[in-house]
Amino acid sequence: RSVVYWMRMADLRGEVRDNRALARASEKAVQDNVPLIVLFVIVPQDYVAHDRSARRIDFTLRNLRSLKERLKELHIPLVVQTCPKRNNVPLFVTEFCEKHGAKALFANHEYEVDELRRDIKVIQGALPKAMQFSLFHDKCVVEPGVVKTKQDKHYTVFSPYYKNWVATLNRDIQRFLEEAPLPQPNPEHILQSQQFSPLFAVEIPPGLDGFELDEEHSSRMQRIWPEGEKIAAKILEHFLTTKAQASRLGAVHPFDSDAEKTDTHSRAAKYHNERDRTDRDTTSRLSLYLSSGVLSTRECIRAILRFNKATKLDTGNSSGGVRWAQEIAWRDFYTNIMTTFPRVSMGRPYQEKFADVVWEAHQDNNGSEANVDSDILKRWKDGMTGVPIVDAAMRCLNHMGWMHNRARMITAMYLTKDLMIDWRVGERYFMENLIDGDLANNNGGWQWCASTGVDPCPYFRIFNPYSQSTKADPTGDYIRHWVPELAKVNGPEIHNPSTTTANKLGYPLPIIPHNEARARALRRFKNPGES
Ligand code: FAD
């Protein structure tokens, strides 16, 4: 007999604290005096279908390896197995439970449509009647469906959602932030039994076919994005408390000894003023740890409260990381939107009126890119558009698998409005390359920029990439770092090099003049269906 905790790709946590399903599974195992087994199922078909990046798969495997070691100290086996066909997952998990005599299966919710359908299949069909499957809300601070209007409707605009989110959280802060206990060790003698000891020997594959990284790429990812809960906790603490100006752009992590200069305030303390700057290390860079569940969002809020010596989130105080909590709320908001309007995660625009906007290049119903002028799309992907801020951001993504939020907005707006390329094409490219790819956040961000989402940027508010560049990168350091052709350009020209300078330095000329592109976008959004 046993209890099984089914760990999913977004809850790679168990070492430090706060994994709800794991904690409850452990309690149940202790109560029934049976061992706890942790199961992780690799489903390559899912990763292909969901455009998972090789970087994210690599990060997942690295975390599983470190978790396996930690759980072994508690005599808890972490068994990583591969189920080649995604439709077989419910049966695969059920058979695993049956084989190990599990009467109880625990997991945290995954809110994406395919994953919800899979869990329903487990409940309705696969599991034998005598077996109990318990699911927990773990991804968000305030779980989806809780923050609603007075009329019991879901919010589709962020500001009122956020106001109510803070009020809801503050009203019952103990419950929302309650820390899930660490798993209890399995009794040693049980695991020495013939049935369980082989589970410790199951190896985690070194990599997955189709998702390999070459050696240089893999060590770069390890250097920029080290795995593990302790690291994530350290990054969080550093963001909130340390006055050291963080890393050199994109080279190392904030707490690394390479920190260049010191400042009088931590990044969290300056976040409300500086968060839109790409030329400084102004944000936490925790998105990867949050989207893979290595760090819990609840812990982020707890840390802000600890830092401010507060018992509630005081939104009147914009410094001290409280403004940062608003970003965590955006994350809850987009997950809430995805669960409420699942069509957004199935390639549909939230604003159906924009479903017929004519794109220069779009994604057809099979998900392949149709009508794409491959050269133009390739230039965006490669960071060769001739618009320095766009190129810097895209090269940053290609190098480190991450981009600053403002840079994501500028590049997404440029693709959808200046190049008039379907947001779904960009959404996919981001997922395939981001290490922090998260369906709800990525879709929310892309639909915001394409003006098709909930609470979007209105279609007539088209970013001018050059003026965005002067605000996001006032020193030009971000561009100079990522676009070495322009490293010697000083002054305002860095944002929009003249034809002479560009030709001299071997930098491309812009694909299309911004004013011309803007007029085309306005025309097409005003009259969907017409070109
Ligand atoms: P911080 O500024 O330190 O924010 C803290 C945390 O809050 C982030 O780690 C993230 O979890 C959350 N957050 C911040 N901004 C947002 C936002 N606008 N929406 C939702 N959550 C937010 N975020 C992802 O995690 N995965 C994605 O795949 C993703 N794709 C995006 C695509 C586009 C086009 C846009 C415009 C935004 C996208 N975002 C995505 C949101 C945001 O850009 C990143 O979360 C942020 O840049 C991560 O850096 P950070 O951890 O330093 O953020």
TrEMBL record:
<dbReference type="InterPro" id="IPR002081">
    <property type="entry name" value="Cryptochrome/DNA_photolyase_1"/>
</dbReference>
<feature type="site" description="Electron transfer via tryptophanyl radical">
    <location>
        <position position="446"/>
    </location>
</feature>
<dbReference type="GO" id="GO:0071949">
    <property type="term" value="F:FAD binding"/>
</dbReference>
<keyword id="KW-0157">Chromophore</keyword>
<protein>
    <recommendedName>
        <fullName>Photolyase/cryptochrome alpha/beta domain-containing protein</fullName>
    </recommendedName>
</protein>
<dbReference type="Pfam" id="PF00875">
    <property type="entry name" value="DNA_photolyase"/>
</dbReference>
<feature type="binding site">
    <location>
        <begin position="327"/>
        <end position="334"/>
    </location>
    <ligand>
        <name>FAD</name>
    </ligand>
</feature>
<dbReference type="InterPro" id="IPR005101">
    <property type="entry name" value="Cryptochr/Photolyase_FAD-bd"/>
</dbReference>
<dbReference type="GO" id="GO:0006950">
    <property type="term" value="P:response to stress"/>
</dbReference>
<dbReference type="GO" id="GO:0003677">
    <property type="term" value="F:DNA binding"/>
</dbReference>
<comment type="similarity">
    <text>Belongs to the DNA photolyase class-1 family.</text>
</comment>
<dbReference type="GO" id="GO:0003904">
    <property type="term" value="F:deoxyribodipyrimidine photo-lyase activity"/>
</dbReference>
<feature type="region of interest" description="Disordered">
    <location>
        <begin position="255"/>
        <end position="279"/>
    </location>
</feature>
<dbReference type="GO" id="GO:0005634">
    <property type="term" value="C:nucleus"/>
</dbReference>
<dbReference type="InterPro" id="IPR018394">
    <property type="entry name" value="DNA_photolyase_1_CS_C"/>
</dbReference>
<dbReference type="GO" id="GO:0043153">
    <property type="term" value="P:entrainment of circadian clock by photoperiod"/>
</dbReference>
<feature type="site" description="Electron transfer via tryptophanyl radical">
    <location>
        <position position="423"/>
    </location>
</feature>
<dbReference type="GO" id="GO:0006139">
    <property type="term" value="P:nucleobase-containing compound metabolic process"/>
</dbReference>
<feature type="binding site">
    <location>
        <position position="271"/>
    </location>
    <ligand>
        <name>FAD</name>
    </ligand>
</feature>
<dbReference type="InterPro" id="IPR006050">
    <property type="entry name" value="DNA_photolyase_N"/>
</dbReference>
<feature type="binding site">
    <location>
        <begin position="436"/>
        <end position="438"/>
    </location>
    <ligand>
        <name>FAD</name>
    </ligand>
</feature>
<keyword id="KW-0274">FAD</keyword>
<dbReference type="Pfam" id="PF03441">
    <property type="entry name" value="FAD_binding_7"/>
</dbReference>
<dbReference type="InterPro" id="IPR036155">
    <property type="entry name" value="Crypto/Photolyase_N_sf"/>
</dbReference>
<dbReference type="GO" id="GO:0032922">
    <property type="term" value="P:circadian regulation of gene expression"/>
</dbReference>
<keyword id="KW-0285">Flavoprotein</keyword>
<dbReference type="GO" id="GO:0005737">
    <property type="term" value="C:cytoplasm"/>
</dbReference>
<feature type="binding site">
    <location>
        <position position="324"/>
    </location>
    <ligand>
        <name>FAD</name>
    </ligand>
</feature>
<dbReference type="InterPro" id="IPR036134">
    <property type="entry name" value="Crypto/Photolyase_FAD-like_sf"/>
</dbReference>
<feature type="binding site">
    <location>
        <begin position="283"/>
        <end position="287"/>
    </location>
    <ligand>
        <name>FAD</name>
    </ligand>
</feature>
<dbReference type="InterPro" id="IPR014729">
    <property type="entry name" value="Rossmann-like_a/b/a_fold"/>
</dbReference>
<feature type="site" description="Electron transfer via tryptophanyl radical">
    <location>
        <position position="359"/>
    </location>
</feature>
<feature type="domain" description="Photolyase/cryptochrome alpha/beta">
    <location>
        <begin position="4"/>
        <end position="141"/>
    </location>
</feature>
